[in-house]
Amino acid sequence: MISKRELLDLTNISYGQLYRWKRENLIPEDWFVKQSVPSGQETFFPKEKILSRISQILELKDKYSLDELCHILNPEISNKIFLLREIVSIDGIDLVVLNDFLEGETTATFSDIVLIYTFSQVKKQVHIPYDTLRGAMLAIKHGVHVKKINLAEYELDFIRHTNDTRKEEDYCFIAHKSNAILDPKIKVLKTYVFEDMINHIKEKGMN
Amino acid sequence: MEEKEYESVKVSGANVQSGTNYKDIKVAGASKFVNDIVCNTFKASGAVKSEGSIKANFFSTTGALKIGGTLDAKEIKAAGGITIGKDVVCESAKMSGSITIKGKVSAKEFFVDGEIKVGDELLADKFELKLNGESELQEVYGDEISITKEFSFGFRQHRSCTATLIEATTIELEGTQCKKVSGDHVKIGEGCVIDLVEYTTSIDIHKKAKVMEQLKIE
Fold it and tell me: Are the beta carbons of B123 and A19 separated by less than 8 Å?
């Protein structure tokens, strides 16, 4: 956590800016956490979240209108249906992943796009045989559809588990962001936070 | 989606309205609204009572106004005795008279002449309060905040304000009692009683003000 004073010093913004962005819903209200200190009450923020949010706002505020900025920064999943040509136009989408994911469908929801985009990144960055990855992707796709998961709260983890016979096995799954993995036999290879993915996609103009 | 055209209401005299969606509302006299209202403009004079919330682009009233829920409008002009049961959300508001807001205030610009009581935090880029009567605020956050007594001739009622915390880039206070004031440029005027003032750039304390502790933040 970071105190309000430290935040203002570190980011060089004024009270006025901070409160304007709060009022404009660019900074979620629940990030303002009040805690008792010897001199009364002080407001604290989740440090990493607020610092990255403020740098995003500073970077994007001159390029976009307030409404657009709100859309870009607030990772609520919209219910809009996207057409194939819209999805193809997103920079970073792998066409093989897209084709396999859609399984013949020609439209996708925003959360589908988030998964397609994420697995496109995975295909580029993680060394896994594509067939294995494809199987995992489709399993996760169906899981997300059935359970109607709000991806913004989840992350995609790749882990390596060493079992009792010293054999290593790799797994891929989605987990709630707050679930920490503490088992020493498990090594987290790579984590994709969907909220970041959503922000990437929104920055590319999709929402 | 096509925008649906809603009907307008124009009445004078005692009336009760039970609709939700309207285009423009203009009422004079004792009016009562029983549902939440969504409309383009809301203009009223006389005693207006709404049991639900009101959402409008432009909202103006004179006289006694009582809203049970939230008032959400781009622009608000209200004069008289005003009671809002929940929050006020707006771009700009000018209110005068005796105002009670039980919830929060969120505004780009918020101007008040008179006395105001706010039950929860007040968040405004620019907040100006001209004291006339006894105001009671809780936490006040913003960019420019000024709470002052206008120069006046002759007899005036008691003019004061209490708050628990005031935080803004620029702060100017008169007649205000507050636990903590924190800002970049802080001016504490006549009649203030402040427990702690924190400032980064400048501070100015009137000789008839009481500041228990002041702290320059580097």
Answer: yes
Chain A residue with the nearest C-alpha to that of B198: A5
Give the number of A-B residue pairs with CB atoms closer than 8 Å: 43
Q: Nearest residue on chain A to B109, judged by CA atoms?
A: A20
A177 Cβ under 8 Å from any chain B Cβ: no
**A85 domain-assigned:** no
Average pLDDT over residues A12-25: 89
Q: Is residue A176 part of a domain?
A: yes
Nearest CA in chain B to A16: B143
A161 shares its domain with A186? yes
Pairing of strands B65-67, B71-84: parallel
Q: Are residues A101 and A184 in the same domain?
A: yes
Are the CB atoms for A18 and A6 separated by under 8 Å?
no
Query: What is the tally of structural domains in chain A?
Result: 2
pLDDT interval class at A205 (50, 70, 90): low
On whether both A56 and A132 belong to a single domain, the answer is: no
- Same domain, yes or no: A69 and A117: no
Q: How far is A40 from chain B (nearest CA, A)?
A: 9
Which of A27, A52, A77 is where one domain is finished?
A77
The number of residues making up chain A comes to: 207
Q: What are the 10-residue block averages of pLDDT along chain B, 218 residues in total?
A: 68 84 90 89 93 92 94 94 94 95 95 95 95 93 92 72 95 94 94 93 93 89
* ∠ Cα B121 B124 B128 (to 5°): 105
Quick check: A23 contacting B, CB < 8 Å? Answer: yes
Please indicate, yes or no, whether residues A18 and A62 belong to a single structural domain of this protein.
yes
**3-class SS of residue B71:** strand
Could you tell me if A41 lies within 8 Å of chain B, comparing CB atoms?
yes
A133 and A72 belong to one structural domain:
no
Whether the ipTM is more than 0.90: the answer is no
Which structural domain range is residue A184 located in? 90-203
Whether A84 is in a domain gets the answer no
Quickly list DSSP for A34-95: EEEETTEEEEEE-HHHHHHHHHHHHHHTTTS-HHHHHHHH--PPP--EEEHHHHHTSTT--H
Residues of B with CB under 8 A from a CB of A: 106-108, 123-125, 141-144, 165, 167-170, 179-180, 182-184, 196, 217
Do A126 and A187 share a structural domain? Answer: yes
Is B168 in Cβ contact with A23 (below 8 Å)? Answer: no
